[in-house]
Amino acid sequence: METAIQNNVAVSGDKNTQFFHLRASQRRRKNEISKLKKSNGQFTENEDEMGAMATDFYKTLYRSEGTTDMDRVLNTVPVKVTAAMNEGLLAPFEKEEVKIALFQMFPTKAPGPDGMPAHFFQPIGNYAAMR
What residues have CB less than 8 Å from 110, skipping those under 6 apart? Predict the structure, then answer.
């Protein structure tokens, strides 16, 4: 008896499934943008035009508007990197530094955009450190 009920629920779902499906469908309809108002006051329902309008809106939103007196703003930001720290950060890499960093990495983690895992470079790191 229990197996028959379980099979029926698995095939046809239960009331909760139907309830949540209806809620998701209602939310999708409610959140759908069917038209946008253009700058000339007219509405458009053309999807390509609405897509271009949305793209233009966000490009304009995040574009710099020629800020003035930026030094005044930046002077309120506390300095976290001193000149000495910056000099150390800009110094050339030492072979031993690279080897230490390479061997601290988990072997299967990719160190950069090339996608090669650390264990690929670790034997090279040993060789480079010896030279």
Answer: 116, 117, 118
Coil/strand/helix, residue 1: coil
Q: What pLDDT is recorded for position 81?
A: 92
Identify the bridge partners of residue 36 per DSSP, sorted by sequence position. 44
How far is the C-alpha of 64 from the C-alpha of 52, rounded, in Å? 20
Gyration radius from the chain CA atoms = 30
Whether the per-residue pLDDT at 53 is higher than 90: the answer is: yes
- Measuring CA to CA, how many Å separate 28 from each of 18, 22, 23, 34, 78? 15, 10, 9, 12, 46
How far is 90 from 92, CA to CA, in rounded Å? 7
Closest CA to 128 of 92, 96, 106: 96
- DSSP E strands: which ranges in the chain? 36-37, 43-44
User: Which pTM does this prediction carry?
Assistant: 0.36
